[in-house]
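Need the bound structure for fe (ii) ion, inputs here:
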Amino acid sequence: MKGLSLSGLWPVFKTAAKGCPILKLQKKTGKIAEDFYLLLNPEIPLFLADGDNPVAFDAGFACLGPFYADAISGVLGNRPLKELWLTHSHYDHCGAAGYLQQHIEGLAVGAAPGAARVMERPGAVEVISQLSRVAYVMMKQIWGLDAQDIDFAPYRVDRILRQGFEFEISSRLSVRVIETPGHTRDCISFHLPQIKALISSEAAGIPDVTGYIYADFLVDYDMYRASLEKLAMLDLDLICVGHGGVIAGPDAAGYIKQAMSQCAAFKDEVERLLNEEHGDMDRVMALVRATEYDPKPDPKQPEPAYLLNLKARVAAIHKRLAAQNQADAC
Ligand SMILES: [Fe+2]
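Answer from helper R.:
Posting the output first, comments after.
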């Protein structure tokens, strides 16, 4: 395909092909650290920190609501889940939040101020509903899971989460909020210092089985990069990305730096393609998709969601490039 340089765009493919060590994604479900669990499925997980005040983090597709509820009960027994905190308001992170709120008495949903406002916008709720239906079909037809035909239910945000807010889960486990905008404006991450764990969703990219890390700056590249720099300051043994598993042990220590490096490489290559293709974003999207999405095996992001996100990522670089060109001309 004209204008596409694999060697420039995906250096990690070359690394993997030479048999060099690449990131190992731990796919285990259940207990992954002291009082800390990955529940249901590593591709669309719910994380649970257990203690006197149990907190769950993210609740993926709407059609998986009953399964998340069962998995939570499997750990907590008759003890109630007190809190469900959301990293951001995308359909694959908040899809089942409304279902869980309806079915777990007294459950408080926590989210950033912006994520709370999303539920007040009918257009945004409709997009989440549509993507939730696509996810249901994907679960049934591609993953072969017995997902439930459940519509997305809007949720009520009971607790507004801002930078630095701390919550005691138990005498030996706490969680702190870190604002990490860039994927979305309202994206937040959660740090559990006692177990050196980070729940980053897409704020630190999404690695795939080849070791390639999707840089997911849907809103702003520089904002995303600044958030990564903030996360790089943490001492981490466990990184819970949004999909695909967790990065544990020695790999965790170097992951954020690797995400930063691959993110910069992606930005540079999209800039190069935009220049070569004279700013034709559709053409650049087709070129990127041909290597980043089409050849990848399942499980992978549903195509409509991938294309929505890719458009946003290319647009963010296009906008940044235009601002730079304008500044250079002045
Ligand atoms: Fe997201």
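Comments: The chain has eleven helices and 15 strands. The longest strand covers residues 173-179.
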